[in-house]
């Protein structure tokens, strides 16, 4: 059994004169990352490996989750291939994970995140919003044998706001 915790980066800021890869989070993004990470850290998940797109907004989102769990930095890897919008690289990175990784947490971007959860999850999601989390369980022994799994949990920031 493998578990994938897939997280789209929080809301980014367009106020800075930087290239897309270097855009930081905006205030809402920081608030949502803290809110969602604190909530999901209570869900009895223990990632063996955390893979993070090396884009600034994705790293900053991951920082909130790493702190909330907490997750040891020796389990965290930054990966340029996850700066992916089509989903091809996202799927490739997941399929290349070592078989001893049973719980994998991945931070990435849309459209790749939504396409992945609709291809491999059991619940259709029109759009995974910023800082949305989808947890999918797979009945596989090796990540390379990725096939449709069961969507266990869907957590969006709006679900946690009253």
Write the topology of this structure.
Blueprint: E1 2-8, H1 27-40, E2 49-53, H2 56-68, E3 76-79, H3 88-95, E4 103-108, H4 112-120, E5 133-138, E6 150-155, H5 157-160
Parallel strand pairs: 1-4, 2-3, 2-4
Antiparallel strand pairs: 1-5, 5-6
Task: Note the main attributes of this structure.
162 residues, alpha/beta, Rossmann fold, globular
Describe the structure.
The protein is an alpha/beta fold and 162 residues long. The chain is built from five helices and six strands. Helix content is 30%, strand content 21%. The model has no long low-confidence stretch (mean pLDDT 97). It starts with a strand and ends with a helix. It has a six-stranded mixed beta sheet with strand order 3-2-4-1-5-6, sandwiched between helices. The longest helix has 14 residues, at 27-40. Helix 2 links the parallel strand 2 and strand 3 (76-79).
How do you describe this structure in short?
The protein has 162 residues and is an alpha/beta fold.
């Amino acid at each position: 059994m493998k578990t994938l915790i897939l997280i789209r980066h929080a809301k980014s800021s367009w106020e800075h004169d930087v290239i897309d890869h270097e855009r930081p989070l905006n205030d809402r993004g920081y608030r949502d990352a803290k809110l969602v990470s604190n909530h999901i850290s209570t869900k009895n998940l223990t990632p063996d490996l955390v893979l993070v797109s090396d884009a600034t907004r994705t790293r900053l989102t991951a920082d909130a989750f790493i702190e909330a769990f907490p997750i040891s930095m020796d389990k965290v890897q930054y990966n340029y291939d996850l700066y992916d919008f089509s989903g091809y690289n996202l799927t490739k990175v997941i399929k290349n994970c070592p078989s001893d990784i049973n719980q994998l947490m991945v931070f990435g971007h849309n459209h790749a995140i939504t396409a992945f959860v609709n291809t491999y999850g059991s619940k259709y999601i029109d759009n995974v919003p910023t800082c949305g989390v989808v947890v999918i369980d797979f009945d596989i022994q090796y990540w390379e044998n990725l096939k449709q799994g069961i969507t266990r949990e869907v957590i969006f920031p709006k679900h946690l706001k009253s």
